[in-house]
Amino acid sequence: MEELEFELIGASDPRVLEAIALGDKARKTVGLLPRAAYADAARNKRLLVASVDAEVIGYALYGLPRNEVTLTHLVVNASHRRQGIARALVEEISKLYHTRSGIRANCRKDYKLADMWTSLGFHPRLEIKGRGADRATIVVWYRNNPGHVDLLTPDASPLLRAAIDLNILRDLHDRPGRKGAWESLSLVEDHLADKLQLIATPQLYHEVTGIEDDQARNRYLAAMAHGYIKAHGDRRRAAELTREWIELARTRQSSYPVTAQDHEDAKHLGDAAACGAEVFVTRDEHLLQLANGTAQAALGISVLRPADVVLRIDELTRPDSYRPSDLHGTGYSRHEVSAQSEDELTTFQNVAERETKKAFLNALLTAATVPGHWNRTLIRDPEGRPVLLCVSGIANERLEVPLLRVDARHPISGTIVQHTLSDLRHQCRRHQTKILAITDPHLAAAVRRTALTDGFTETDSALIALVIDRVGPASQVQAAAEEAARRAGFRLSFALRAEMGIFAAAEVERTLWPAKVTDAQLPVYILPIQPRWSTVLFDVPPTLPLFRTEDWGLGREHVYYRSPNGPKLSAPARLLWYKSQGTGTLKGPPSIIGCSLLEEVVVDTPVALHTRFGRLGVWTQQDIFSAAKHGKAQALRFTHTEIFDTPPSGDEIRKIFTKGGLSGTIQGPRRISAELFKTIYCGDVHGNRATQAGHPAVAEA
């Protein structure tokens, strides 16, 4: 065989069509993806093709959710199978995304491909029921990247809850297939089994029971009984939402509803919204046009065609779907819940999980009966609308969260949930407790999933995060984590060891934050930063609030640019930020102001870097050009930032550097030993241990 070549191709590359042709031929085993899914993957550099002599002989199409890679398609031309092409594609993905924990893939059990997945280095992680007509079992396969510890709890909770109309139901269960049904069938492909939950609303049952054809009616009812979640929304609320939708639709079509179908559609939309569905799926072009851009605002539900649902899930699985840049220049605010505001908070009632209004208000009122013990916190958006509600307090030697709710309709709800989870970890650190327990019995699936991907462990009664405030060798951190896990009622699922690889150490420090494992191979760098950038990113030195906007406080991650010249940095690693002296109004003594976890280092042109990371920073394209040398700049993507309460003074820095064998000024990145890092981080020179960031808005950004 000629030399095998790999390339991530763009949306305009003609090889996208070659990949689509291969996928169509293999659709019996990999499923049929909408054409738009290929274009979207290529546009976001998630379509990897394998070529020989310019001919595409295989491809991998994948997503990048959280800290892993999810394979949607892994396809090799039949004439080139059993030549190691599939393994080569998987290995190439593993190399491209070596900082991620691993690769995940879904496959039907009855395809009997266990030997193949095992030979590719995967292991079975979870089994779930598919939603196709035969309800086949889906196996979730996982392949850890080298050096990574699998710290995440296997999870099958959906990313999206979607109600379907009668025509979609017919598409999925009529045999032979109806015209255009291929689009609806994409909803039950294996790779979506753990991401999409299909809902049968009371209105759908009503419409099905009205079908005169006994055979068809019974077929649909049998399918709904076994392949769908039967939703029970509040009937009065459904009627209210139906009326609201009709009033809104009349602003576009004054005579609406005109036909019997219009009346059914209106009832179905109201029903779906009352049942907690995030999406209503239809191929009705009239309804799609009428609802475009309006149903979400009025009812909190999007009306989408099946192909767009597949793309919506893909969007939700990408890290940049959190869109921290959406917060730029806004005015999100944090408040204590007052008695006067309790009535408006019923929007946080989890109707989808059958929580009653009385039970919700009782939970809220119970927390109010012990003022000072429970914190009832409300986050409002710039328009004053409630976005997130959190009740927390110290109980049973742990920080308990009996109520954690978010308005899932809000465009940046994911960002705010992640910010809140980080803030709760900081509260644990302040209270010197090692256990954070979310005990909300009606936690939304999206919040639960975010917590699980953020290092929480699920027990019978709670979601638990361990907050291990220990800096030391693996044995000490392991002992502290095991003791905390024992008190929390579960056993630690991983073991730390001396000389852990850099990827395993980074995952441990993310999961057990603020733990730092000093005998791991994780490198540590001191990195100089100019005050104008430390001010914007970290509020050090502090400035007027209008200069530093909320996206830095609520954003999940940040980026810093520098010249690619000088010592090379590798990721993951720890960063210590060395603020230089500065000039003018920002002039001040140099100091080491905090630390972060370096997640990624990318060298490219300023235009390419701004396109890739522009959502994360205040840097303009011109700023990146200013940092570049010979047409290239270096982007450092980092998370888990802590700002030191008492940064060392100039004299203390000199003592630290002398103790660590450093001489001269810090002009560029300098790698230091783990012992010197511990000296700086723990404040051994000046007697003050670094605690939570002095500016909570940027703590663990």
Short description:
With 701 residues, this protein is α/β, with parallel strands linked by helices.
Explain this structure to me?
The chain has 701 residues and is an alpha/beta fold. It folds into four domains: 5-127 and 135-142, Gcn5-related N-acetyltransferase (GNAT) (Aminopeptidase); 160-317, Rossmann fold (3-Layer(aba) Sandwich), CATH 3.40.50; 328-467, Gcn5-related N-acetyltransferase (GNAT) (Aminopeptidase, 3-Layer(aba) Sandwich); 524-682, Hypothetical protein (Archaeosine Trna-guanine Transglycosylase, Chain: A, domain 4, Roll). The chain is built from 25 helices and 27 strands. The strands form five sheets. Strands 1-2-3-4-5-7-6 form a seven-stranded mixed β-sheet, with helices on both faces. A seven-stranded mixed β-sheet has the order 13-14-15-16-17-19-18, sandwiched between helices. The longest helix has 19 residues, at 413-431. It is globular, with a radius of gyration of 27 Å. The chain starts with a strand and ends in a 19-residue tail after the last helix.
